[in-house]
C-alpha cells in the first residue's frame, strides 16, 4: 500500500450552474487520479456534486434551497455520481467504492473506527474509496454542508501524505479573485491566522457551498493533524501530479506537526464538548507550552453540567479556545474547589485524580 493522497473535488469542478454532471470533467479527474495510482500512491477521493448532479432530474431549475429538496436531489444525484465514477475508474482498471459519512459518524468512536478499517481494507485491495456526506440523513444543524472538512478529517484519520482540495480557483488569493481583479495568489502558508481567514470569502458559484473560508478551516484541521494541504486547480493533464510534487497551481499549507493518534483526533475534532472551563493566564501557559496537566488552582470559571469522563472545552480569560480534554471532575465538584491548591482540594472533596484534565487526555487546538 503506497503513501496515501486524499483528493477532494468540489461541485463547481464537476457540474455547471444549470445542474447535471459534466462527464468530460469527471473523466478528466478520474484519469488524473489514475495517474497518481500508477505512480504508486494510494488514492482516496472525497467528492461533492450529488445535489448539483440530481436537482434537474427532479424538475428544479437551479440548486434548491430547502433541506428536504436538497436531500431528495442528493438521493438522485449520488447514484448518478457513483455510477459515473464506477464506469470511469473501471475503464482505467480500478474499482471505486462508495462511502457515505455524517458528522454523527465522526463523533462516534466505534463508527469512525469502522469507517477507517473499511477504508484501509479497500486501499490494501487497491480500490479507491469515494466519499461524500450522507446528505439524505444529515440534519441541518449537524451537516458539514461542504466536503472540505470531511476531506481534512479523513486525511488525518488515514495519516495521509497530503490533502489536495481541488476547486475552480488556483488557490487562496488576497481577496476573492472573482470580485477583485488586483487580488494576488498566496503561494505558501505555514499558519492560518485570523487575518488570513478574513481574506477568504464565500462560494463563487451557485453550485458550490463553502467557498475559500471552509477550505481554510479544513486546511487548519489537516495541518493540526500533521497533514500538509494544497488548495488549487487541476485543469490540464498532469496538474494533479504537479500538485503532489509541490509545484501545483495553487496554495500550499505546510505543517511541522506530527500525525495525531486517532484518540487525540477524536478528542480534538469529533467529540461534542459538554462544558466549558475558563483558566487563568498561568494555566493557559502551562497547557499551551508546558505540556502540563490542568490543576484546580488554574480554573477561573466553568459552565455546563458535565460529569467525570466527559469532554470539555478550555478557554483562556479572553474567551479564546485553547483546546479540549477529558475532565476528571463533575461540574459541581469543580465549582466547589476552583482556584484552590491541590492540598486544599484533597481536604474538601474526594476525587479519583487531582488533575482536572490530565495531559494525556488533552489536545491543544489553537
Ligand atoms: N480569497 C479568496 N481566494 C480565492 N477564492 C476565493 C476567495 N474568497 C472567496 N473565494 C471563492 O471561493 C470559490 C471556491 O469555493 P466553492 O465555490 O465553495 O468551490 P467548491 O465547489 O470547489 O468547494 C472560488 O470560486 C472563489 O470565488
Ligand atoms: N454533499 C454535497 C456537497 C455540497 C457542496 O456543494 O459542496 P462543495 O462543492 O464541496 O462546496 C453534495 O454532494 O452535493
Automatic annotation (TrEMBL):
Localization recorded for this chain is:
Cytoplasm
Xref: InterPro entries? AceGlu_kinase-like_sf, Asp/Glu/Uridylate_kinase, G5K_ProB, Glu/AcGlu_kinase, Glu_5kinase, Glu_5kinase/COase_Synthase, Glutamate_5-kinase_CS, PUA
The record's similarity note reads: Belongs to the glutamate 5-kinase family.
The residue ranges of the PUA domain are: 275-358
What Pfam families is this protein classified in?
A: AA_kinase (PF00696), PUA (PF01472)
SMART domains (UniProt xref): PUA (SM00359)
Q: Record the organism.
A: Paenibacillus cellulosilyticus
State the UniProt keywords alphabetically. Answer: Amino-acid biosynthesis, ATP-binding, Cytoplasm, Kinase, Nucleotide-binding, Proline biosynthesis, Transferase
Q: Name one GO biological process term.
A: L-proline biosynthetic process
Function of the molecule: Catalyzes the transfer of a phosphate group to glutamate to form L-glutamate 5-phosphate.
**Keyword presence, Manganese:** no
GO molecular-function terms, A-Z: ATP binding; glutamate 5-kinase activity; RNA binding
**Per UniProt, where does ATP bind?**
8, 167-168, 209-215
Q: Which GO terms describe its cellular component?
A: cytosol
- Reaction catalysed by this chain? L-glutamate + ATP = L-glutamyl 5-phosphate + ADP
Q: Determine the domain of life of the protein's source.
A: Bacteria
The name under which this protein is listed is Glutamate 5-kinase
**Pathway linked to the protein:** Amino-acid biosynthesis; L-proline biosynthesis; L-glutamate 5-semialdehyde from L-glutamate: step 1/2
Q: Where does substrate bind?
A: 48, 135, 147
Record EC number? 2.7.2.11
Enzyme class of the recorded protein, top EC level: transferase
